[in-house]
Target: Catalase
Amino acid sequence: MSNKKQNQLNEVTKSNDDKAMTTNNGVKVSEDENTLTVGERGPSLLEDFHFREKIMHFDHERIPERIVHARGFGAHGEFQVYKDLSEYTSADFLTQPNKTTPVFVRFSTVQGSKGSPDTVRDVRGFATKFYTDEGIFDLVGNDIPVFFIQDAIKFPDLIHAVKPEPHNEMPQGGSAHDTFWDFFAQNPETTHTTMWAMSDRGIPKNFRQIEGFGVHTFRLVNSQGQSHFVKFHWKPLHGLESLVWDEAQILHGKDVDFHRKDLYESIEKGDYPEWEFGIQVIRPEQEFDFDFDILDPTKIWPEDQVPVQKIGKMTLNQNVTNVFDETEQAAFHPGHIVPGIDFSNDPLLQGRLFSYTDTQISRLGGPNFNQIPINRPVNEVHNNQRDAMHQTNINKGQVAYHKNALNNNDPHTTAKEDGGYEHYQEKVQGHKIRQRSESFKDYYSQPKLYLNSLSKDEYDHTVDGFSFEIGMCNSIMVKQNAVNQLNKVDRELAERVAKNVGVEVPESNEEVDSNAKDSQLTMEKYDIPLPGHSVAVLINGNIDIETLKLYAQTFTENKLNYAFVGQHPKNISESFGITETFDTAHPTLFDSIIVLSDGSDILPSVEEFTELTYKHNKPLILNQNAAQALSKSNAKISLEAAGVFVSDRPQTISQAFNRARYWDR
Model:
């Protein structure tokens, strides 16, 4: 984060270190445990201004949570472009490779409330605030590149359908209920995004290992006024990982904060999450060259056809000081853009440009939300806007209008060539109508493309995702209609889901006749780097301290997160020990396990821990004694299975942990 942005945040940072307690008016407080009363047991007095102020502020501490994306967590960082992109844009932060731009990123789920679990099946928000020298650019996207609807007028309907059903306020945090799947079946434009959400993409492993997408088509405009259509991408340098569904469900109870804790602890340890910023570019003359409409937010631009150019890198390297002041009060808006970036005619984007200002006014109490430190630009603000709720500026001078002579017409406008924003001059004509473009009405080709691009294991998991969610519906009609929609994408998918949820397979095969694929859509294309991997070392019996130190040294050298787990906590030496027990640790909280045994019989807790890790297809390393003992136990694992390694060498981790899951187990 830049010093200027940090100074803004520090302006309102309050520390209680060695400070006398005062009221908000600055009066020192002599006592803070008892209200003012008449005698020890008498009535309280209205004149107790300290109590009145304290309880009033407490009564109003909470602000309305976001209608969607309420459950979120954020961090600060920086962005730097790799090369000068003046060919495409005049945006300062994209044309100067020597410039570092501070950023703030907020990750979130969509459906659930602030108190819902992190690991539900859902789309994740990926919103980035760039504090550029020309103003704030907000890239308000998701971890899935497409959206459920094509026109913003349907957004209230989508959210009403996916939110907890109003008659009983259930279920919280997920889409596995009748109203969502009824909406899905009656609105075929939702098919593509739902396909992504029901795949492994809907249950990411953590925030560090998700992709980010701007979703919409934007424009980049260079200094000559030339425009290119663009889509924005974030590519994670930590790899791309997901949970398995059973694991995600267990984590709801084991650690409701699993994702936010991972992000927070990674940054605290210096294992900074990183993404490469990418763009897909289509020249104006190519606008109609594809078998999809490039303005349709339910369509991707297949990367095999329009490659992603890696243009920069973002690093998140600082946790927030206060979650409410920063993460909760952060006001994102897709209409916050800078010179060199402009909008397309995507109807969903156009509606979002209107909606987000209303949202911030409702949540943050008025139009001055951009004066909150987290929302302030790093460059100075000068305009004639005045007063309103929560005004924190003290505006000086006689004049608050444009044009004026009393103040030499300040603040004055700025010409485009000097950095003033000017919209791209697109020629637009037509009749005023309410009608969807015919080019938006292919609802099934790209869902089929997505399915074709998945590995066999990813396809099977998608079947499981649909089966669970549709199976949770009460209405047979809703289940049948949902399966009928799947039948228009892929016959095998419809048949398998129909069998699993107990409805009829549609009589005729209506699937899209296409073998088209995009090699970039499978999650298996990503390598998983060793740093950041977490491992639980299970202690079965007495293992000498030198062996444990050797493992710890290997983990540290490879930047792994680790915990030694035993029956009881134990300080083996002054700075070393068994820090977790089988009561506090759980296999879903780790990426892998190592079992170290002295030859004793396998403890029931070790057996249970090992079986669940094996079931979730994670890497397992067993020392020779542990392998022999497990082979004689009732543990339901095979020592010959993929991803099970028998070794007494700590260095085996480099071989065992180069895959996140062994699906062929």
